[in-house]
Amino acid sequence: MSIKTIALLVFDPEEAEWSLEQAATLAAAHDAHLTVLHPYNPMIFTDGTGAEPLIYASMQEWEEQDSEKIRAIFEKQAKAMGILGEYRPQTLLFGAEEFLLSGARGADIVLAGTNGTLTRSPDDRTLLERVVRNLGRPVLVLSAEASLTGPVARMTIGWSDTREATRAAHDALALAQDGAEIELVTVVSRAQRTVPGIDGKADFATSLDRLGFRVTVTERSATVEQRGETLISAAQEFGAEMLVTGAFGHSQLYDFVIGAVTRDLLEFAPLPVLLSK
């Protein structure tokens, strides 16, 4: 499937400076429409049972000022790259998650800045995690230092026999260059029972070969806590332009107690990461 509709989530004007340039460049490379979504997620201060009306009015004004800054950057980048697009700011001081989910579900791919961005608030970090969990679309995580400007020539796919990993692997093909080099990496954390015959990874590698991709299959060993770091190391050693993996394959309770690979990749990955749930 080709990419013709891209959505970009922008949380503040500071990240808009670099993320809009990257998104516009990627949209131009794919001849795609770009929709920019800016959520409001203010900190609500209360006095007794509710906040003073003046506080809400001030928050609304601050959000609108930030929104106009982002709009100006978007219009500048859209004009410079010659792309079609639209800017959609949230207009209410509540419902940020619902706003992003409804606005991004029509996109072929959704772009977002890393949670490692210094200007990202804790509330907005959590909001991005919830969007990845609940959106149902692939999310490409970028940073000021880790951009993706066109079709990918080399990518690393973190593989496991799960719905999330399978979906991510197939979603990534829309970003792949014809004849791209693809590394399928399985991270093994404990001794596993070997099942005779062709497993999911071998089957998928064969499918990629039929599509004309050059495929390498590898396996690495790591503890649960080191899975994210191991995937990043594999991608860097392969010279990958993008890392691909399933997102939040466990319950939120498991992630809270044991830790989530997805959360680590959202914050610390030094290269673009495609996540699918």
UniProtKB/TrEMBL annotation:
This is Universal stress protein. InterPro entries: UspA. PANTHER family: STRESS RESPONSE PROTEIN NHAX, UNIVERSAL STRESS PROTEIN HP_0031. Residues 160-275 form the UspA domain. Belongs to the universal stress protein A family. Pfam families: Usp (PF00582). It comes from Alloyangia mangrovi. The lineage of its organism: Bacteria, Pseudomonadati, Pseudomonadota, Alphaproteobacteria, Rhodobacterales.
